[in-house]
Write the structure tokens for this entry.
Amino acid sequence: MMAAMRRGWLIGLMLLLVAPGAAPALADHGVGTLDTVGSDTMAGLMLRWGERLGREHPGLRVQLQASGSASAPPALTAGTTLVGPMSRPMTEAERAAFVARYGYPPRDIVVARDALVVVAHRHNPLSALSRAELDAIFSESRRCGAPRGIRRWQALALARPSGRIALHGRNAVSGTHGLFRREALCGGSFRPEVNEHPGSAAVVAAVADDPRALGYAGLNHLTPGVKALALRDAEGRLRRPEPAAVRRGAYPLARDLHLYVNRPPDGDLPAAERAFLSLVLSAEGQAIVEELGFVSLPAEALAAQRRRLGLPSAGD
Amino acid sequence: MRDAAPDMPLRRRLRQGRDRLATALITAGGIGVIAAVMAIGVFLAVEVLPLFWGGGPGGPEVDLETLWLPQSYPGLEAPAHRWQPTLPDSDPGPRFGMAPLAWGTLEAAAWSLLIAVPLALGAAAHSALFMSRRLRTRLKPTLELMEALPGVVIGFVAGLVLAPWLERQLALAATLVLLLPPGLLLAGGLRGALPGGLRRRLPLGWAALWLLPWVGLVAVLAAWLAPSLEAAWFGGDLRGWIETTLGLDYAGRNAVIVGMAMGFAVMPSIYALAEDALSGVPASLAEGAQALGATRWQTLWRVVLPAASPGVLSAVMIGAGRAVGETMIVLMASGNTALMTANPLDGLRSLAASIAIELPEAAPGGLHYRLLLLAALLLFVFTFLVNTLAEVVRSRLRRRYRRLGGAP
């Protein structure tokens, strides 16, 4: 639950990563501060990338205001930041506001992938659910085609556990809630019985305490107390939430993590932004992604994005 | 003295000036506070009015009926109350039924009062009338410490420790609730049956300590009995029995958990105010009653309690006001499920918790934002009324004491 409250603590909190000293690599461009505003899901990532950047280029620091993905587009449009981390793509309205101000769209860089997992108690015999079953359990609209709702464990043809399925999820204003609603509930609406927790860690903790519970949470919040369920697709194949499957796009409940960058189509990036993106799209940056429990991008996607940004290829 | 005499007028004038300045500052502070409270109310009202004034963001989408009565939504079999404000506009459209939130708020407050009031009033009556002074001077700071515990800590413990424990040990908890009252009554009776010498060493003022080991004993007894009782009466699974035989849903974070946590939070303030009211009853009244042959119970029940009743009532009302406005405890202990059910074992979602969760993400000026401010206005009006009423009642009590010739 403490991690759950992180969002609140981080609002308005500036994470200052100060690295005093000379800046040999960026000497000709001067020492810089990189201001970023956006997603709290990505706060840990931005922090670690910033730390690494500060070590490579002493004097360069990354300043992060992690108050939610929704705060990134206004800050980019207002020009207070050039880099906005978002755990969802920009909406049409957000993009239009940016274009109206600058005349060109913001550059969308995918920097990592994240997945949602359906979790059960570690002793629960259930190992996989189809999308229709998932929808019948969590929603009251059943848009994915289940004939009737599933409220009890008996309906899943399991000997154990019995009784009502206790449901746990994120609160309605979180991106996790929205993604699960769109992808797993086919855009329908949740049952009102789904417990709404302020963070993914709280969801996992609640499920780990109750053998009759199911929940959904971010992949990076898995603990030994719960097990992640596989999803059964229309042909009956199991889709496990493993990094390789998430990277390939085979696991359905996945999302890209974005950095939106304000960069004119013909202009070049300032040195600080350039160094940051170069790190993020390097093997080193992607190792940090893995360390934090997210899923790194395949090498060819990295190379393609580096080319598009005009960054030297990773070997240099 | 004589030397200082010529200075006196100047000094006095200085002192008067200081007094006037202090009075002015205090008055300004008081007026400032009142103005701030009024400004909050006015701000909320101004932000909320466009909802119902036509042409505002509410427009045709919400009115009193859609807010407070069951609505039929696509995909649902029967009309229902739904608070799902973040569903996208196009499909299936946000749902703004506020009744479950108001219901959850009142349900949480009712359960916390149900748990806190008997305990707090019992403790207040005992410590005001019977407890030894030494024990009382220890008890009061302890309870004040309880009041100083932040709500977020209480909510954290309730949601992450108490709720899972209760879910696993439901039978034990139920046995404990059943055994504690008769067990403690029995213990009280046993004290009366003690031989004279022992009894003198355990005067009434210290009787609370006599009960403590008995609480432990009852707990051990409950732990020993619970599994066999559960096996004999409920087939070894009380939770399953509640769900199948009683047909009640059991949620781990439910109204009773919230009531216990919030009861813990409001108990100290109810205790403090009620204790003040009870110990403020002029001693002459109680002494007179006992001199006329009334027992301690009769004195308490027929004389002291009625005399202090306005103060006790206002203590309960202050507790109710706090329970309704409390945010973090409900947010962390309830599961935030916007349900409209009388089942105390199901979850709930309160107005205050909804504001805390959703307001940071609601677009300012939008419909969702204004509805959350409407929720804030409701809470504001409710706590304002309850607190004002409690204050009015308390000032009546003070007048009554003065008439009875006791301390103010």
Summary: The mean pLDDT of chain B is 86. The longest strand of chain B covers residues 83-84. Residues 321 and 383 of chain B are 5 Å apart (CA to CA).
